[in-house]
Task: structure prediction
Amino acid sequence: MLNISIEVTDLRVVRGSTVVLPGLDLSVRAGSITGLLGPSGCGKTTLIRCLAGVQDVESGTVNVLGEPAGNPTNRGRVAYVTQADSVYPDLTVRQNLDYFGALYGADAAAIDQALADVGLVDLSARLAADLSGGQRARVSLAAGLLTDPEVLLLDEPTVGLDPVLRRDLWALFAELAAAGRTLLVSSHVMDEAGRCDEVLLMRSGKILAQTTPAELLTRTGRDDLESAFLAIVEAEEAA
Amino acid sequence: MTGTLATARRVLQQLSHDRRSVAVILILPSALLVLFRYVFDGDQQVFNRVGPQMLGIFPFTVMFLVTSVTMVRERTSGTLERLMTTPLRRGELIGGYALAFAAAALVQSFISVIVAIWWLDLGVESSWAVVLFTVLDAVLGTALGLFFSAFARTEFQAVQFMPAVVIPQLLLCGLFVARDQMAPVLEWISVVMPLTWATDAFTESLTASGLNGAMWRDLAILVGFVIAAVAGASLTLRRRTP
Result:
């Protein structure tokens, strides 16, 4: 039996008068990287916020690690790295991580490790405000790694990073997954789907397909993931 | 408790990287007091009569502004959302803010009391009571700033709350016109405004040595307002938002 770490049933989220998620079902198995892909505005961030337990939900159940999302026992076991880099610009890199570390009860060694994982050791005394956008995003990611969480919810973690850094981060994600961690990584760049074990294709608040990248190509008969996604969308619209 | 201390330390670290704000917090109330003193240069009597109340009002205003803007920044930058996914409790977050700014307020109050009493020759009976109420006023400004920041979506709005919250209290607190000479409705309203009680305490400090009965009452009321505002502020924090 597969070990399921995220399970969502009939999730409905309404914001103002807009139905963002009309009724979504999803399950993600432990120890894998799942790519959440779809155009901007399709509900990726809202779904991730639901899993992190910070989104007002109208109905449906959201379970992460067997607990309702946002349950106090999950704080520290589930890391949420927001799309906007949520770090304090007027603190140094190290001070940022020291603060989040103190809240989680992480020790100095864990902070050093997280800094090394995202390649920011040399910049640790720099003010976050003086960093580039990509560097700040990595500080934010490092803060999410401090507790060695079992589930990582990463909202567009590789936006604005150069190819070398992107490769390094994906290598880190693969390492984490191999160690049994569950990663849900959102992106609107289709070529990142190829680095995932599974992909979730999302559009207008619905999951169009949950499959492996290889299967997606075979099923649609296309040879790149971008056009495979388009094929799925077109098939959906025709139906 | 760990969360409160870690948050207080973080807020003070943030402040320490912002030299201009530190200067504003520490020096501005004293500078305004000096200005006030020399506006009434021809009549030291006026300064002696309303100087002590000013000693409380300037730090109250400055701390209200600093705190509400800092808190709105936390809400809008995404860091608050991140904090809501950590084990940090809401009361610990607000407590951390209150503690950090109270520490800043303490230093600020010492500076302005020293300037007022030893440089500007402000005549008060018990200077330590003046220190106590000045600190309390600054902490009150912090507490109200934490609370009112919940109703501002942007830093721009937060700044505009300053005149809305501070000026009516300033007008009604009994500084310009004795409260019993105002229209009865205004007198009733002034009863629920914390600055009224702070002003009363400073007026008492002109003549009372130590804390008299009225000052104990003022102290209790002000502490009550601080606790209510801090509690209200932590209730306005939501783990889940739309």
